[in-house]
Amino acid sequence: MTTTTDNGAPLLSAEGLHVTFPGRNGAPPARAVDGVDLDVRPGEIVALVGESGCGKTTLARSLLGLVRPTGGRVTFAGTPLAYGARALKAYRRRVQLVLQDPTGSLNPRHTVYDAVAEGLRIHGYDGDERAAVAGALSRAGLRPPERFFLRYPHELSGGQRQRVVIAGALVLEPELIVADEPVASLDASVRGEILALLLRLREELGLSALVVTHDLGLAWNIADRVAVMYLGRIVETGPVEEVLTSPRHPYTQALLSVLPEAPGEPVVLTGEPPDPSRVPGGCRFHVRCQVLAGGEAARAGVEEACRTVDLPVLPGTGGTAAACHWAATRTTV
Question: Which of 145, 258, 277, 333 is least surrounded by Cβ atoms within 10 Å, i.e. has the fewest?
């Protein structure tokens, strides 16, 4: 884990963001993102963590302009995101997506050179294309780059394919990348190499990143800050060391408890996350909360609040915060 030295204005911000999708067969709309504030500062790596289905990929797609919010707004470098074709094209040159499945995101009929050059061609790059492609491949750790120009994805290892995907994002010299489960499909031996690459790119290029993951161990190794998401909202956020060594929200505690190095017994959450079209009243985690089920919330005098009183949207940046009635009764760290 490294620490950013830039504490200036956010580069990318979500402010009161909502994304809803129409319900099926007369069901209420699904609140995939249900009020989120989230900032990424220049040179900072933020990990967005949560179970599958919690809304983190929808949030990431809305930050990229791929899904239009139904409420709130996205700003980049202080300017609200516009959704016209020309504005989005200019925005996506500055903010690039790295997908989790390099095999699926690379066209098997395109050479490595064409895969990396595609973004340059879409954006009408008028410089030396060959030099730009070579530079991106080299920065992504594929050296000498010319050795990879005419190769096809099936001729590469999984780690090499992921480096090609990263090179395709770097070739446009973006200011921020959104990496959706960037190492989930890779062998353990390769995961560390890709994470080290992302950290090196931050140091060398000043690149910011939002890393979407279900893996708190990955967040520990790469992020400056972590935002833990549950059922459409951020439920805990703060500097990664503070959140992961002294988690305040019971959901974060449960996620951490299943890591191999975690002390004590794993916390087994009951049931699945609720349907986002039927978000429970009160704390949205209360129907699965081990603290409530174990009687600790009652002893703290907040059991009724857990079931009935909604919690405010957490601030997007700053110190540690948890959306939890029980945590609010305890001494913060």
Answer: 333
